[in-house]
């Protein structure tokens, strides 16, 4: 059994519901109907396994409910989906609901993939899986060598936290770590106190 080629024609366009001038000029029902005529005159309807004509579902009652002249309510799409599924079932199930056996012939044979090449090696695949597990467990993209070097340099005290990594750098830049209080400069505090006192004295004398 080959692929089930499905084609659905464009849904009818409700010209009076179109909102933009561009759609009214370039996307009206007259232009869309020309595309439908081109498709029907081609070989596509004969080649398609399931050919769905939505005009029977998108009747006048449903066109009135269109919000922008192009899109319909959810019930319309639900019905069209069921129509397509029914078309597919005709190729997969018989009238009694039994699964149809695939036809095997010279023109409609089952697809047989090409055999795998030299990359199909169980041992090499196991090495790849183990390498991935090591990287995941150690959180090290260098197969654990980075973690081992940290263990050797820190005598087993390895910390991979953000605070330990960027804390010393922020400390040199005199930037407080998130969640900690900023360090007050005594000179700055003294200047603020003196300026506040002088402003208070000026206000009192005035």
Description:
The chain folds into 2 domains: 6-92, no CATH class; 125-189, no CATH class. The termini are far apart. It has 9 helices and 2 strands, in the order βαααβαααααα. It has 206 residues and is mainly α. It has a two-stranded parallel sheet with strand order 1-2. The radius of gyration is 37 Å and the shape is elongated.
Estimated helix fraction: 40-55%
End-to-end C-alpha gap: 100 Å
Strand percentage: under 5%
Strands, count: 2
The number of helical runs is 9
The low-confidence runs, each spanning 5 or more residues with pLDDT under 50, are 103-107, 199-206
Radius of gyration: 37 Å
Look at the structure and give the mean pLDDT: 77
- Please state how the strands of the largest beta sheet are arranged side by side: 1-2
Q: What overall geometry do the principal axes of the alpha carbons give?
A: elongated
The biggest sheet, with number of strands, parallel, antiparallel or mixed sense and barrel status, is:
2 strands, parallel
Task: Please give a quick description of this structure.
The protein has 206 residues and is mainly alpha-helical.
Features of the shown structure:
single chain, 206 residues, mainly alpha, two-stranded parallel ribbon, 2 strands, disordered C terminus
What is the fold's blueprint, element by element?
Blueprint: E1 6-8, H1 21-26, H2 29-41, H3 44-47, E2 50-52, H4 60-64, H5 74-92, H6 122-138, H7 145-153, H8 162-172, H9 186-205
Parallel strand pairs: 1-2
């Amino acid at each position: 059994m080959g692929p089930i080629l499905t084609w659905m024609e464009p849904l009818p366009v409700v010209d009076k519901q179109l909102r933009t001038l561009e759609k009214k000029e370039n996307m009206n029902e007259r232009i869309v109907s020309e595309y439908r005529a081109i498709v029907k005159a081609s070989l596509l309807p004969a080649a398609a396994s399931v050919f769905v004509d939505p005009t029977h579902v998108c009747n006048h009652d449903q066109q009135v409910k269109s919000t922008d002249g192009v899109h319909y309510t959810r019930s319309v799409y639900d019905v069209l989906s069921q129509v397509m599924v029914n078309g597919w079932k005709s190729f997969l199930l018989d009238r009694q609901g039994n699964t149809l056996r695939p036809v095997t012939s010279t023109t409609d044979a089952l697809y047989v993939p090409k055999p795998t090449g030299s990359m199909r090696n169980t041992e090499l695949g196991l090495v790849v899986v183990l390498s991935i597990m090591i990287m995941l467990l150690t959180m090290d993209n260098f197969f654990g060598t980075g973690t081992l070097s940290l263990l050797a340099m820190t005598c087993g005290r390895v910390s991979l936290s953000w605070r330990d990594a960027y804390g010393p750098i922020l400390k040199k830049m005199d930037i407080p770590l998130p969640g900690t209080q900023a360090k007050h400069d005594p000179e700055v505090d003294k200047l603020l106190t003196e300026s506040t006192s002088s402003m208070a004295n000026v206000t009192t004398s005035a």
